[in-house]
Design goal:
Radius of gyration: 37 Å
CATH superfamily of the largest domain: P-loop containing nucleotide triphosphate hydrolases
Distance between the termini: 89 Å
CATH topology of the largest domain: Rossmann fold
Helix content: 40-55%
Number of strands: 27
Largest sheet: 7 strands, mixed
Structural class: alpha/beta
Strand order of the largest sheet: 13-23-24-25-21-26-27
Strand content: 15-25%
CATH class of the largest domain: Alpha Beta
C-alpha cells in the first residue's frame, strides 16, 4: 500500500504506514481499541475472504482509505480463514494500556502468521502436519528442509530434482520459501502448487545457514545430526531459522534437533507411483486411498506419523521385523491392545501442547489437557512394561512419567479452569497465602453486602431494597418510588430511574474498594502463578516430545494390529532374498468397497530374479489386471512399512524402488498428450532402475497407434529382461497378446492371463490369474457391457472374426482392404416398408404393462407382417 504522504496524515495512519512498510506482502491486522482493522488493499482482500463490510474512513485532508475490521475477540474465528486463503498475516497489537497513555498508543507486530507457521488450533489440522518447506537449488543437487513449528519436527535432505519433488508430494508443505534468484527453477519443478514466499539471495548461503544451525542447537558442528556434509540441505535449513526470526517467532526452544531424511533408509517411490497407487490421496473424487483403510490411530501424533510411514516404507529388515513383532504382540493380546487404546484415546495432541508450552502460548485449559495426557501415559508405560515382549518393554522404558510436573499441575491448578488466564478461579487454595486472603475479602466481602442489605431492610422498613453493582458508580442501594420517603438522610442519591432511585453510602464505598482491589490483585497473582507453572513445564519440553514420539509409534503399531484383526491380514515375512511370493493376495482398498455379499477373488503372484523375472499379464479390460498390479505393490509396501498384509501368506524380498506406470494420467491442461505423459513416466522408470526394483506397467503404448504401441511395449520388455546391470522384477499388463511370443525367446519372461469364462456370446470375468497367454482381448464384449449401440457391436464382431480368420497372413494392409463392407449403408427400416410397419407396432407397445400371453400374440402378429 502506498504511503499517503500528506501534511495532514492522521497520527494513527502515520503509525500504521510505518509498521506496514516493515512487513511487505503481509496483511496487517491493526489493533484499534476493541477491533482489529485492515486498511487499503488489505481491507479489500479481507472483506472478500471474510465476508465482512468494506467501508471508507478519512485519512487526513481530502483523502479516504478503505477500511474493514472485526472485534478483537473474534481473532480465532477470522485468522484461520485469512491464512487458509494463502495470506501472510501480521498481527499488530497495542503494547501499552490506552488508559495510561496520552496521545497515540504504542503498537507493534507480535506475530506474523503464515500458511506454514502457526500455533492456532483453528489454522492447523489435527491429523496433518503443517510443514514449512525451504528449498535451495544447487549446481547438481537440490537441498530441502521441512519444519512443523507446531510440533518441533525439523528435517533436512538433499538429492535430485526428482527426489525433492517426491518428498514434496509426501510431506505436502503448506508454504514454501526459496531464494528470489531461484524463481524460474522453482516454477519449472513445482508450477504454482504451493503458497510461496521468496527471500533475499544472501540468506541462501552455506556459511550463514551453518552458523544459524549451530547457534540455535548450541553445538560446535552438525555431525551429531548427520547433516554436516549435506551442503545444500544445510543452506535450506538455515533459511528456515532465519525466516522464523523474520516472522517474530523468537521462542523456538522446542525445535530441539534436526534429522536427516536418509534416501538410503526408505523405499524410493516416485511421485507418479505415490499418485498411481493412491497411498495418501485418491486420484478421483470420492475415491478411497490406502491411508483411509490403514488409519485406525486415536491420537493426532499417531495419525501424522502414519502418513510418514506410508510414504516412507523401510528397507532395513531388522527395523521392519521389530515393527512386525510389536504388531504381532498386539494382534495376539486383545487385552493389552484394548488397554493401550483406551489410554491413548485420552492423550490428545500432547506433541502440539508441549510446543505451546515452549513458546509460552498455552492457555489454562490446555495445561489441564497436558496433565490428562501425562496421567494417561502412565498406564500405557505400565501395560507395555508388563507385556513380556522385549520390544514393548524397550518402548516402556522410553516413556518419562514426568512425575514432578504432573504433581505440580495436579496440586496447583483447579480442575475446571477458564480458557483465558485473566478470568480468575485458576489456582487451588493453599498455594499462596496472599491469594487465599484476597479471596476471603473478595468473596466474604460480598456476603457482608448481603448482611448490609438485610440490616438496612430491617432498619428502614423498605422490603424491596436491593444492593447491586454497575461499572459507572460501583455498588448502590436501589429503592422503588413507593418507598423513597423512607430513605435515611445520610444516603447520597446517585441516579433517578422511572420507577426507582439509586443511592450510595460511605460504608458501601469502603467495602467496594476492598472487594474490587482484592479482585484486581487476585487476577494479577493468579496470572503470575500460572506463568510460573508454564515456566516449570518448559523444563519438560524435551522428555514430553520424546514421549509423544513413542506414543505415536505405539498408536501406529496398534492401529496396524486393529486393521489386521478386522480385515484378516497376516504377518508377512520380509527377507533379503530377491523373491516376492504372495499366496492368495487381495487388494486392501478394493476388497472393502465391494457390494455386500461379494467377496474379493484372491490371486497368487510369484516373481524373482532367476526364473520368473517378468510376468506378461494379458486379458480383457475390466478383468482385473490393474487391480492385480496395484495389489502386488501395495502388499509389498505394507509389508515394508511394518504392517500385516491382505493375503494367505507373503514372503517379500526387500524392494528398494517401486515404479508404476498405471492408467492414462493426462496432462492435457499443460499441453501434454496422453502418450507424451506415458512416455515421460516410462522414461523416468527406465532411467532409475536397480536390482531390487519392482516395476508395474499397465497398458504401455496404448496412447499411440497399435503398431507403435506393440513395438514400444515389446522393446521395453526386452530392455528390462536384457538389462546389463539389473534383473528388474516386472509385472507387465497388456492387451497386446502379441507380446505372449516374447516368452518363447526369453527364459525369464512368463505368460499369465486374467481368466474369463465364455458362455455363448457372453463373458464372465473370473478375475483369476492363471498361466499362459490369452487368445483375444474381448474388447467387443466390454463395449457391449458398456451399452454400445448393438449395430456397432455386431459390425465390430464381424470385422474381428474376419481378421482373426487369417492370422497367418502377414500383409495386414491387404487384409484390411479385404474387410467385408458394411451390409447396411442406410437404416434397416428405410430399406424395407415392412420393417417400418414393425417399428410402428413396437413403438405402440408398453412393455411394462403387457402380459406374457399378449406378448406372444403380438410376436406372432409381427412374424406374419414380415412374412407378407
Amino acid at each position: 500500500m502506498a504511503k499517503a504522504k500528506t501534511a495532514k496524515e492522521t497520527p494513527l495512519m502515520k503509525q500504521y504506514n510505518v509498521i506496514k512498510t516493515k512487513y511487505p506482502g503481509a496483511m496487517l491486522l491493526f489493533r484499534v481499541g476493541d477491533f482489529y482493522e485492515t486498511f487499503g488493499q488489505d481491507a479489500i482482500t479481507a472483506s472478500k475472504v471474510l465476508d465482512i463490510v468494506l467501508t471508507k474512513r478519512a485519512n487526513g485532508a481530502a483523502s479516504h482509505i478503505e477500511l474493514a475490521g472485526f472485534p478483537h475477540h473474534a481473532l480465532d474465528t477470522y485468522l484461520p480463514k485469512l491464512v487458509r486463503a494463502g495470506n501472510r498475516v501480521a498481527i499488530c497489537d497495542q503494547l501499552e494500556d490506552p488508559k495510561s497513555v496520552k496521545g497515540i498508543v504504542k503498537r507493534g507486530v507480535t506475530e506474523l502468521v503464515t500458511p506454514g507457521l502457526s500455533f492456532n488450533d483453528n489454522v492447523l489440522e489435527k491429523r496433518h502436519n503443517n510443514f514449512l518447506a525451504s528449498v535451495f537449488f544447487g549446481k547438481d543437487k537440490v537441498g530441502v528442509s521441512f519444519l512443523d513449528v507446531s510440533t518441533g519436527e525439523f528435517m533436512a535432505a538433499q538429492g535430485s530434482r526428482q527426489y525433492i519433488s517426491k518428498l514434496f508430494q509426501g510431506f505436502a508443505p503448506s508454504e514454501v520459501i526459496y531464494s528470489k534468484g531461484s524463481k524460474a527453477e522453482f516454477s519449472n519443478l513445482f508450477q504454482d502448487e504451493y503458497n510461496t514466499f521468496a527471500l533475499d539471495e544472501w540468506i541462501y548461503n552455506h556459511d550463514f545457514g551453518y552458523e544459524k544451525l549451530i547457534n540455535h542447537f548450541k553445538t560446535s558442528s552438525l555431525k551429531g545430526f548427520g547433516i554436516e556434509n549435506l551442503q545444500e540441505a544445510v543452506i535450506a535449513a538455515g533459511a528456515v531459522l532465519h525466516y522464523l526470526e523474520e516472522t517474530e517467532h523468537k521462542d523456538i526452544k522446542h525445535i530441539a534437533s534436526i534429522s536427516r531424511i536418509d534416501e538410503e533408509k526408505y523405499v524410493w517411490l516416485d511421485k507418479f507411483t505415490i499418485r498411481n497407487l493412491e497411498l495418501i490421496y485418491p486420484q478421483q473424487d470420492g475415491g478411497v486411498p490406502l491411508i483411509d483403510i490403514l488409519d485406525r490411530t486415536v491420537t493426532p501424533m499417531g495419525a501424522r506419523l502414519l502418513k510418514k510411514w506410508v510414504v516412507l516404507p523401510l528397507k532395513e529388515t531388522a527395523v521392519i521385523a521389530e515393527r512386525h513383532e510389536i504388531v504381532d504382540t498386539f494382534h495376539q493380546d486383545n487385552e493389552l491392545l484394548d488397554e493401550v487404546q483406551n489410554s491413548l484415546k485420552q492423550i490428545g495432541d500432547v506433541e502440539r501442547l508441549i510446543s505451546k508450552v515452549a513458546v509460552g502460548r498455552i492457555n489454562p485449559r490446555e495445561v489441564i489437557h497436558l496433565k490428562k495426557a501425562l496421567k494417561n501415559s502412565l498406564p500405557i508405560k505400565e501395560a507395555l512394561a508388563a507385556s513380556g515382549a522385549p520390544h514393548l518393554e524397550k518402548l516402556a522404558d522410553q516413556i518419562n512419567p514426568c512425575e514432578f510436573l504432573l504433581e505440580k499441575i495436579e496440586k496447583e491448578l483447579q480442575d475446571d479452569v477458564p480458557i483465558v488466564s485473566n478470568q480468575g478461579n485458576l489456582i487451588k487454595e493453599g498455594i499462596d497465602e496472599e491469594l487465599d486472603e484476597l479471596r476471603k475479602i473478595a468473596f466474604s466481602g460480598k456476603d457482608y453486602l448481603v448482611q448490609i442489605q438485610q440490616r438496612e431492610i430491617e432498619r428502614t422498613g423498605i422490603p424491596s431494597l436491593k444492593i447491586a453493582y454497575n461499572k459507572v458508580f460501583g455498588y448502590y442501594l436501589e429503592v422503588s418510588n413507593a418507598h423513597k420517603d423512607k430513605v435515611p438522610t445520610e444516603w447520597i442519591r446517585k441516579q433517578t430511574l422511572v420507577n426507582a432511585e439509586r443511592y450510595i453510602t460511605e460504608e458501601l464505598k469502603v467495602y467496594e474498594e476492598k472487594i474490587l482491589s482484592a479482585e484486581d490483585k487476585l487476577v494479577v497473582i493468579e496470572q503470575k502463578l500460572f506463568h510460573e507453572l508454564v515456566i516449570a513445564a518448559a523444563d519438560y519440553v524435551e522428555p514430553i516430545q520424546k514421549n509423544a514420539k513413542v506414543l505415536a509409534m505405539v498408536d501406529c503399531l496398534s492401529s496396524f494390529a486393529i486393521t489386521a484383526r478386522e480385515n484378516k491380514y497376516i504377518r508377512p515375512e520380509v527377507n533379503d532374498t530377491t523373491t516376492i511370493d504372495i499366496k492368495a493376495g487381495r487388494h486392501p482398498v478394493i476388497e472393502k468397497q465391494l457390494p455386500l455379499g461379494e467377496s474379493y477373488v484372491p490371486n497368487d503372484v510369484y516373481i524373482d530374479n532367476e526364473q520368473q523375472q517378468i510376468l506378461i499379464i494379458t486379458g480383457p479390460n475390466m478383468a482385473g489386471k490393474s487391480a492385480l498390479l496395484r495389489q502386488t505393490a501395495l502388499i509389498v509396501l505394507l509389508a515394508q512399512m511394518g504392517s500385516y498384509v491382505p493375503a494367505k501368506s507373503a514372503s517379500v524380498g526387500i524392494v528398494d524402488k517401486v515404479f508404476t506406470r498405471v492408467g492414462a494420467s493426462d496432462n492435457l491442461s499443460k499441453g501434454e498428450s496422453t502418450f507424451m505423459v506415458e512416455m515421460t513416466e516410462t522414461a523416468s522408470i527406465l532411467n532409475n532402475l536397480s536390482d531390487r526394483s519392482l516395476v508395474l506397467m499397465d497398458e504401455i503404448g496404448r496412447g499411440t497407434s497399435t503398431y507403435d504401441g506393440v513395438s514400444i511395449a515389446w522393446s521395453i520388455v526386452e530392455h528390462l529382461h536384457n538389462h546389463q546391470d539389473f534383473r528388474v522384477k516386472t509385472l507387465f499388463a497388456t492387451h497386446y497378446h502379441e507380446l505372449n511370443q516374447l516368452s518363447e525367446d526369453f527364459p525369464r519372461i512368463k505368460n499369465f492371463n486374467v481368466s474369463v469364462k465364455e458362455v455363448g456370446d457372453k463373458i464372465i470375468f473370473m478375475r483369476k490369474l492363471k498361466e499362459g497367454g490369452s487368445e483375444h482381448s474381448f474388447g467387443i464384449h466390454v463395449a457391449q457391457l458398456a451399452g454400445m449401440p448393438n449395430k456397432v457391436v455386431i459390425r465390430a464382431n464381424e470385422i474381428m472374426h474376419f481378421l482373426e480368420k487369417d492370422k497367418h497372413k502377414n500383409d495386414t494392409r491387404k487384409k484390411l482392404e479385404e474387410v467385408p463392407k458394411a451390409t447396411y449403408q442406410m437404416s434397416l427400416f428405410e430399406a424395407d416398408p415392412r420393417f417400418k410397419q414393425v417399428q410402428e407396432m413396437l413403438d405402440a407397445l408398453d412393455i411394462n404393462t403387457i402380459s406374457p400371453v399378449e406378448a406372444l400374440l403380438k410376436l406372432n402378429e409381427i412374424k406374419k407382417t414380415l412374412e407378407k
